[in-house]
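Operator note (shift B, R.M.): manual run for Histone deacetylase requested after the automated queue skipped it. Running by hand, logging everything below so the morning shift can see what happened. Input copied straight from the record, untouched. If output looks odd, do not overwrite the archive copy; leave it for review.
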Amino acid sequence: MLKIAFDPVYIHPLPAGHRFPMLKYELIPGQLLHEGLITQENLFSPKECPEDLILLTHEREYWHHLRDLTLPPKEVRRTGFPLSAKLIEREIRIAQGTIDGCHYAMQNGIAFNIAGGTHHAGSNWGEGFCLLNDQAIASNYLLNDDLAKSILIIDLDVHQGNGTAQIFEKEDRVFTFSMHGANNFPYRKEYSDRDIPLADGTGDEEFLAILEDTLPRIIDGCTPDFIFYLSGVDILATDKLGRLAMTREGCAQRDRFVLNQCHQRGIPVQISMGGGYSTDIRDIVEAHCNTYRIADDIYF
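Run finished. Output pasted below as returned.
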């Protein structure tokens, strides 16, 4: 059964600039339910991630500043969000949703978190709408509990997974792979194990050719027993914050290739949705829903 963590904490009111992108967390499960692709049985609401698991990834001082709402104003501005207890609750539930998704993926091959993909959060900073790094927290959980010995994080959001790269820069058991816009945020990049910066205007043909040439060799090289996939749809040409030129069809081909690689090799995969900021929210929701449709087609 396809299991999907859905965002259980809606934060109202948000400043006007934040309301639009947050709508997708309600619209994606609504669309999938409307199509009959899933039922309520497929959805689960995660509890809060325990502090000891957060501290496997994030420094104690940073976490305590978040938890106690004492993050300095300059660091709050860097996150892009006004700090609140509801926001922190949302972040730790997202992290637990990704951890829970790992267990479902080990049972069923694949699992989703409708939120997550908070890859800009480093060990001691939040940035770009990311406060806690859900896939990094889940990776360290798997390693700490001997549930995985080798992990691959595939980050195909338009922005580099700088926080993820920093967190695992000295961890040989986690291979970080990021394909991203060279000129996109964050403007100060970290070093993933494999970074592929893409020129402005990169479209379907070039993007897919690079991915199809690179990903199988990475998987063969690091032989992961678990994969995390960040499937941001801000690679679309319609995205306000991206600089690439991918079509919705190309984005779907990207997802199909990644998921086929995982499925054919029998490697469980957890997917967090990442970014999407197209002017028309229908482009965002449809591109994200395609990822679920493709997963259902391949796995079920």
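Quick read of the result: The radius of gyration is 17 Å. Residues 68 and 85 are 8 Å apart (CA to CA).
Leaving this for review. - R.M.
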